[in-house]
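Most newcomers find our protein records easier to grasp once they have seen one. To make this concrete, we reproduce a full record directly below:

…
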Amino acid sequence: MINKPTIKDVAKKSNVSVATVSRILNDLEGYSEETRKKVMQVINEIGYQRNDIARNLKMKSTHTIGVLLPKVSTNFYIEILSGIEDAAHINGYSVIICNVGDNGKRTEEYIKVMIERQVDGIIVCSLPPEKSLIEKIIGVNIPVVLISTLYEGYSVPYIKVDDYKASYAAVEYLIKNGHKKIAMLGGKKSDLIAGLPRLEGFVRALEDNKLEIRKNLIKHNGFSFKDGITSMEELLKKKEKFTAIFAACDDIAVGALSVAHKRGLKVPDDISIIGYDNTQAAEMCYPALTTLAQPLYEMGQKSVKMIIEKITSSAEVKSVIMPFKIVERDTVKNI
């Protein structure tokens, strides 16, 4: 019995990777017209049955889930990944974690890896909603679920907290504790998924409570610990009076706490601080951080349930908005 030619045979004879052959068969981008013609010529020469093989590949399950996420520079991702890996293990799936770098610059490279590994589904965590990235991700025709982001105009299910409402709640908590002069240490305003909505929630909470919005008390450097240090130092240089800070993530808040300590400022006696996320850093820092809690671990678990549902069923998978709450610890004083 003569064996039918395989996709590996095509790749070898064409002197290209299996991933490139797969992309050509699925009419995706990432190769030259010359390469496409060469591969198609080999397919015809060796009698590779494109439709049969493509169907078999689609039906074959590797029980593998790919995870695309930015550089793991905050505790936020660690908690989500723990939820993903635990839920995947329970359900008999393995996980490939791909760090696509800042702004998703290595996304295309890792999509090729996903195709080559024949992953059953892809979980995308916090990547920016840029059209080029979106089309690269959904263009591979592999089931996709999003965490902590959304792609407007595309029918891709997501799981996230309402960042606008959550930041509003955090700021309102400070206001209810008597604070009227409130600063914000935020992420980038260009970040439409977390940076801008948290800024808008902050501003609206002040407006609704008829409090002054001072631009000098709003800093935007990013979501890392170092960004928190930078933002806090810039804030203190202005020498404007404030009694409380809303930090757009826990790592920013911990950076602010470290600067306050070096400057001899006591938290919460001199300055109150509320964070956002409720990562382990919030519990481990001193004083322990009051924060707006996202159910990060549960979001990771839920994303696996959603992607398995997409893999195994033709039914529509609905997006999920997760609940949030204030976790009170030791960094907010009632004045």
Notes: The longest helix spans residues 296-312. The chain is about 45% helix and 15% strand. The domain at 7-59 is CATH 1.10.260.40 (434 Repressor (Amino-terminal Domain)).
